[in-house]
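Box S1 | Example of a co-folding query
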Amino acid sequence: MTISAKALLLKGGWTLDDSEFKKTDVLIDPDGIVIALEDEVDLSRFNLQSTQVEIFNVQNLLIAPPFVDMHCHLRAIGLISETFNSGIRAAVKGGFGHLVAMPNTEPAMDDVKIVDLARQMIGQSTNLGVEVEISSAITLGRRGEVVVDFEALIADNVKYFTDDGSGVIDDTLMLKAIELLENTGCILAQHLQGVTVGELGVMNLGDTSTKLGLPGIDKNAEVTMLKRDIDLIANRSVRYHAMHISVSESVEIIKHAKEAGVNITCEVTPHHLLLDETELLTLDPNFKVNPPLRTKTDVRSLREALSEGIIDVIATDHAPHRSAQKELPIEVAPFGMLGLQSAFSAAFTSLISDRRVETIADCKSELQTIVKAMSLNPRKILGIKGGILKINEKANLIVIDPLKRTIQTENDIESQSINSPYLNRPLYGSIEHVFLNGNQIVTEKKLTK
Amino acid sequence: MRHNFIDIEDFSAHELSELAVRAEFLKNTDLSSPIFMENKNKILALIFLENSTRTRISFEIAAKKLGLTVIGFDSEKSSLEKGESIKDTVLTLKALGVNAIVLRASSASSINQVAKWIQIPVINAGNAMRSHPTQAIGDFITIREAIKDRKFVDAGIASPDEFSKLKIGIVGDIIHSRVARSLGELFEKFGASTYLIGPRELLPRYDIGFPVKMITDDFGDCIQDLDIIIALRIQLERLREPFLVNPINYRDRYGITKSLMADAKPTALVMHPGPQVRDLEIDSDIVDSDCSLILKQVENSIYARMAVLSTALNIDIEGVMRK
Ligand SMILES: [Zn+2]
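Box S1 (continued) | Returned holo structure for zinc ion
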């Protein structure tokens, strides 16, 4: 399929390698193939008249590989808060080209039949070029009692296992999952929560919960399970991934584990990087999320750990919920917030925090950190190729304006739900253009189809 | 002044003083003035999603004294709070022409959510463990009155302007108490010192959101300093482990008894937001003694609520005051 009869030139943008910005013009032929990557493309060298080329001025914008989200809830199966269609549209507007869909659907994705059904539904939904990877539960029905048939699921090409929404609390069961996933290359991802959902409070246990008189969630629910898991995986060749870590203690524990050579990766969400527990002072259930928004100190440690590379990945934990659910009293409203569409802006706004940023050069290291955490590292962990622009390959890239300030409104939201914590909050950075498989899917922030 | 009344911390000391002055005026005025007759076109909905006879009756009397038309919505049984229907209910009430809503809820967030959904005044009659602002205003008036009655002259406090000199102890189940939170926020606004006394498991482990002069599980640490002792109800229904507090022990250590008062300043006064458990939180002979302000609190809660309601509904009390 062709994007247009014309070739396309992205002119004046910057690409980012490990150390430096490089001014790069990108020339894409009518079949979506990148045919030139150079400082200043000379069209005549390609026998192109200017009338045959559509030129996008991307001066001072960043050209980056599409993002990969290792953690999103696309619902769709048994749940109406999102469809694969709407989730994919939200994702692509957020600059994502690859998603790992979480298995806490209804029923849970815990066997080959339901995984295949999900893939079929994805096959029938909008084809914007976004890859959606289905993950499986670790235990049947995510009940934490019996492990799934790993062998059958692995044979069916499932590579990612998690009981997300709950942690695997039972030690013996967790050990069994570790043993069964050793040397498979699969990822065993833990939602760190050592208590059942019924025992959870509403928000972080601390000053704000005490002021509001709301039941708190102790950070030890996360920390204790993380410590246990690290004990269990020591000296085992399993690929363990700590999901959405939220407190500074977790950062310390993971730092030490990595130094000791434990095979562990971890992720943080954009909301844990940007927002803290004081958002709950509004008592708005849109800020109720699990793990909960933590303290300002935790937010600072997460930011630092991300910049230092202790945290590998930014993952959204995109969790749509219908308004009727989020309009329940905060004590009973479900946990979760939207994340796909504003992931980059939220994370970037967090990293630059109060710094004055006037040119793209002012935020080079922040952009580098984000491109690593949202694209390069998750590609490595999931084994997805791409991430480097190459001549003679289909254009897979996103164009980011880091200096543009945006304010999300309900109308901008592509999801089936509107539980965004960022509504009416100015964020820095926007995804301007998205190319997937040679097709321009997003042009000037708008979906082309 | 803004029309919603949700948390004490939303208001300045000046605004809170104005409310107190308004309440004090209402207490001493003839309510047969024609201005109150005009108010029957104004409809107030009392929505009580949690059982509370005292607060409900107090609001109802306040509204009737103002001449308002009151419709009640008592519903322990109703699943309002659990279902999606609270939004529909308040939108319906608004569409039916209700002018203001008083809400008591077992959820901390419902009052804030309702305020967002409807643009008519909402008044908080107690939300979970968060706030009970009209109770705090009533207690504020009661304390001001005691000052004016020269109860604290020997303690060096002769006028309500000297409120900041007061040392006030709140005793008992602090952690589960919306009253403690609203009072603490109010005392902060006026610079009074707040002491929190109670069994360790019922005291806050984190910052409770207002300045605390002392937090202790030993009454002996501060009893001799306190001008006012406010005993709280033990909220058995909110305790995770019902037998956490041994009653005999509790009365010995935290009950307001004669032997405790023997150690207090001779001018010290005692309050309780009710309903009190006699001979546990506070002894009967103290409740009925001269140092008790408990019945005044009940009476003043009505004028506090009249002040809040009349402000929310733009009833021109100042106009009456000028006449
Ligand atoms: Zn999770």
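Residues 79 and 85 of chain B are 8 Å apart (CA to CA). The mean pLDDT of chain B is 91.
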